[in-house]
Design brief:
The complex is a heterodimer of chains A (461) and B (60).
Chain A (H helix, E strand, L loop, with lengths): L3 H9 L5 H19 L2 E4 L1 H16 L11 E5 L27 H8 L3 E6 L19 E2 L2 E5 L5 H8 L5 E6 L5 H7 L2 E4 L19 E6 L2 H11 L30 E4 L9 H13 L4 E3 L4 H19 L1 H6 L6 H11 L3 H24 L2 E5 L12 E4 L2 E4 H4 L5 H4 L5 E7 L5 E8 L4 H14 L12
Parallel strand pairs in A: 2-3, 2-6, 9-10, 9-11
Antiparallel strand pairs in A: 1-3, 4-5, 6-8, 7-8, 7-14, 11-15, 12-13, 14-15
Helix pairs in contact in A: 2-3, 5-6, 7-15, 9-11, 9-12
Chain B lengths: L2 H15 L8 H19 L16
Classes of the chains: A alpha/beta (461), B mainly alpha (60).
């Protein structure tokens, strides 16, 4: 059993005990985490206690939840009771332990899932690499010399390596979609305001989202459904009804109007990224190309908002503990603190303009396809790559195709596509606000046809 | 902006904000500032309508 829904079915029907699932999961983490460095904490005692309680409840006739006995782990910027919320940093190790689990952890556990640990990530989520100077890098399960992607690198590494079938991450500029691309996974960045961010360490409040990674679309949908619902504790969370998608996945894609993004979204893409995008477009019978207006300005606006809000968030720490930061993060944040305020306000105003333009496009199309990353996973430690014929720094530029989309909070499912290099790459399925259902239906059709596949990396003989 | 102008901005800004600026950090801060100001210039180069308000809470 490698998928969450398979585990939940087996545990829920009594064919398998949750305790046995947890024991096998712990065993796998014990064998493979030294290779992948995905986990920063394994909550074994808690997980085994929850599993025993679930087994007792099911044996007593309790109705199992849709994620009964499913092991999951969370990026370590999400609160886990009893642990300091590290957000990838050394500084936060001095924080008191979280008093309770974040609401999304509580909601997944209410559906029967069982938390098994906290996951490695780039410091304060300001990276696309999965590198971490304090913990060491999380590694790509398809080639451990390569990046897992960031900033939710441990989430990509853990699910791609088959350590858990489900993980949560955060996405401010691409931090779910980038590791999903590099590690060959399905990842969902929902609409801004859909899932509560309460109980998570922030990065850029204007742009932060939380969401799941899995190796099947059904798993993605079940986890997403379990996490939906208003939460007043997150001021950006929108009070709207839960809109379950699990039952809609196999509705098919007939009649959907789908276009592939051209211009900005093809410039600079590697041959692998373009081949993957075109193969997904072909699998969907999509022949149309659409130009997204002012995508570069959208990306620049997201960049400005990110670096300045990030600098403001960390100002006191930059003043008092600069030597305790990852140098790569500190130096970017110091630069961010110096950006003129007029640019930040203008970027927020442009967000309104760009949103209105994108909503016009979504009157013509139900979904737009774009690459998730310009290339497959770079090598760990690699500082530059060639983009559009120019040598560019890796860290600020892996997110060129994800950044304009999260800028206005559009929902995206990243789907994994194999490449001739033996490494996966992702394609974004972008839809109108609140239409996660359409993106997931398309992803499901691609999975069913074999155009999108998320195999477990072969890390063991 | 040339290197001297960037350095002047770094020195004035970090002094104003009370952020230490060690010599060994300067080259990386300068590189990131160049990138960030480049994006800021893109943002600022086209005027937007006066009445286009940024929302206090953005709704997708």
């Amino acid at each position: 059993m490698t998928h969450a829904t398979e585990i939940a079915s087996a545990v829920g029907s009594g064919r398998t005990r949750a305790t046995d699932v947890m024991t096998a999961c712990m065993d796998k983490i014990g064998r493979l985490n030294p290779v992948l460095n995905a986990f920063t904490t394994v909550t074994a005692e808690r997980a085994l206690a929850k599993a025993a309680a679930l087994d007792t409840a099911i044996a007593s006739g309790a109705k199992p939840g849709p994620l009964a006995g499913v092991p999951f782990a969370v990026k370590n910027l999400i609160d886990v009771a009893g642990l300091p919320t590290l957000a990838g940093s050394k500084i936060n190790r001095d924080h008191p332990p979280a008093a309770e689990d974040a609401p999304l952890v509580q909601r997944l556990e209410a559906a029967g899932a069982i938390l098994v640990g906290a996951l490695n990530m780039g410091e304060y989520a300001y990276d696309f690499t999965g590198e971490n100077v304090h913990e060491g890098p999380s590694r790509n399960p398809f080639d451990t010399a390569r990046m897992s992607g960031g900033s939710s690198g441990g989430s990509g590494s853990a699910v791609g390596g088959g350590l858990v079938p489900l993980a949560l991450g955060s996405d401010t500029n691409g931090s779910i979609r980038v590791p999903a691309s590099f590690c060959g996974l399905f990842g969902l960045k929902p609409t801004y305001g859909r899932l509560t961010r309460a109980g998570s360490f922030p990065f850029v409040s204007s742009l932060d989202h939380l969401g799941p990674f899995t190796r099947s679309v059904a798993d993605l949908a079940v986890a997403y459904d379990a996490m939906q619902g208003y939460d007043a504790a997150d001021p950006a969370c929108v009070d709207r009804p839960v809109e379950p998608v699990s039952g809609l996945l196999d509705s098919g894609v007939d009649g959907l109007r789908i276009a592939s993004a051209g211009g900005y979204f093809r410039a600079g893409a590697s041959a692998e990224a373009l081949t993957a995008l075109d193969s997904i477009a072909a699998a969907l019978g999509c022949a149309e190309t659409v130009m997204i207006p002012e995508a570069q300005r959208a990306r620049s606006s997201a960049y400005v908002i990110t670096t300045t809000e990030g600098a403001a968030l960390h100002m006191q720490r930059l003043r008092t503990r600069p030597d305790d930061f990852d140098a790569d993060v500190r130096d970017r944040l110091i630069a961010g603190a110096l950006v003129p305020a007029a640019a930040v306000v203008q970027a927020q105003k442009f967000r309104r303009w760009f949103r209105d333009e994108m909503l016009k496009l979504f009157q013509r199309y139900d979904a737009i396809l774009a690459p998730a990353t310009p290339c497959v996973a770079p090598l760990i430690g690699q500082k530059t790559f060639v983009l559009d014929g120019k040598e560019m720094p890796v860290r600020p530029n892996i997110g060129i195709y994800t950044q304009p989309i999260s800028f206005i909070g559009l929902p995206v499912v990243a789907v994994p596509v194999p490449t001739s290099l033996g490494l996966p790459i992702g394609v974004q399925i972008i839809t109108a606000p609140w239409r996660e259902d359409i993106a997931l239906r398309i992803a499901r059709a691609l999975e069913a046809s074999g155009a999108a596949v998320a195999p477990v990396a072969k890390l063991e003989a | 902006m040339d290197e001297a102008a960037l350095d002047a901005m770094i020195d004035a800004g970090t002094t104003l904000l009370g952020i230490e600026m060690k010599p060994e950090w300067r080259a990386a801060v300068r590189m990131h500032l160049t990138i960030s100001l480049g994006h800021a210039a893109v943002v600022l180069e086209t005027p937007l309508p006066d009445h286009l308000d940024p929302a206090p809470v953005f709704r997708a």
